[in-house]
Amino acid sequence: ESESCSSGSLSSLSVDTQSLQRQIEELSSFSDSPAPSVTRILYSKKDVLARSYVKKLMQLAGLSIREDVVGNIFGKWEGFNSELAGVATGSHVDAIPYSGKYDGVVGVLGAIEAINVLRRSDFRPERSLEIIFFTSEEPTRFGISCLGSRLLAGSEPLVSALKNTVDSHDISFFEAARSAGYAQDQDDLTSVFLKKGFYSAFVELHIEQGPILEQEGISIGVVTAIAAPASIKVDFEGNGGHAGAVLMPQRNDAGLAAAELALAVEQHVLESGSIDTVGTVGILDLHPGAINSIPSKSHLEIDTRDIDETRRNNVIEKIHQSAVKITKNRKVQLSEFKIVNQDPPAASDESIIKAMEDASKELNLTHKLMISRAYHDSLFMARVSPMGMIFIPCYKGYSHKPEEFASIEDIANGVKVLALTLAKLSLG
Ligand code: HGY
Ligand code: MN
Ligand code: MN
Ligand code: MN
């Protein structure tokens, strides 16, 4: 079939918005926090329920399903030239505590609906189309972001790290994976690695998680690059003691050391000279956590990012220097300064950018080239396949909180652009 006739006949794509909306609501009910928030942690009971819910939708869409040892789930539509490398799409459904119902979900349920849209248009893919449900994109349980896509991208350091990784309840990664029905007989995680060239393209549909598309009234974001994320774990220790009896000169307060470092993160980020440098301290625990006991331990987790990797690394270096300076001034110990991940940014593939732009134009949808400040599984898929991302607007750019919202019209636009882009790439 020639590309023009297929994409030409595809311009009248119809999305079943009613069932897609219902699926988004039903999926959001698998949550460990009350509606409208969503909390869905890797390998939890709610995560397992969400997995079976999505697998059922994949089956209904006529996809053949397989799962790898850590629970990346694949739904495949065999192409008529299936010996060619396939085209993949997908996202995640795990959700950080008290977050929203669209982050990741739009790229999984929307991908399944995109397949249904293509089937309804009598399209037949040349290259197989495969949906990937990444096992865990959020760092919540084990402190490692994009765990599934890092392994798919062949991360040896992650394979060894997972051998002795435990969550905050001291449950090991493998124990947790087994409780969800994965990693049964083998703990050789290299079986997850994708062979280079396994996919000819990977495209992810996602809410923007920023305000630009909504503010500018643009329907589609065509992502050109994904910013470089990094996370750091820091522990300070002091002598603690009675909050009334110990005089100030005798104190080495681990809590105040943490507070000073948190403000240092902000200062180094603001000094970077670019609006693209960001940083925050999203986790700050004090021990023993009693109002009248001087903190003897503090634990911080720092998230800092930039579209420019060198600038981001300079900030990390300065944060480390501040941590050391604080230990000297406050006579506390720096018992841990661990860079958990320090990833490079990723650029989208030019031909995929063109396919997404052409699809938006053919569908008469306004679009804008833009960077993604949030990271995604696409950041790691870009290491093993040409990558692209499609953004849709979300309410005031809200994300990672219960007010997160995307209209079904915007979601349907994203699904159509994804469907047409997949069609183009699968005939390529
Ligand atoms: O944090 C992120 O950028 C992603 O949304 N998990
Ligand atoms: Mn997220
Ligand atoms: Mn996400
Ligand atoms: Mn620690």
Automatic annotation (TrEMBL):
Cofactor(s) it depends on: Mn(2+)
InterPro entries to which the protein is assigned, alphabetical: Amidase_Cbmase, Bact_exopeptidase_dim_dom, Peptidase_M20
Organism superkingdom: Eukaryota
Alphabetized GO MF terms: hydrolase activity, acting on carbon-nitrogen (but not peptide) bonds, in linear amidines; metal ion binding
CDD domains: M20_bAS
Keyword Transport carried by entry: no
Keyword terms: Hydrolase, Manganese, Metal-binding, Purine metabolism, Signal
Record has Signal as a keyword: yes
Any one of the GO BP annotations: purine nucleobase metabolic process
One Pfam family from the record: Peptidase_M20
Record's subunit section: Homodimer.
Name of the protein: Ureidoglycolate hydrolase
Source organism: Stephania yunnanensis
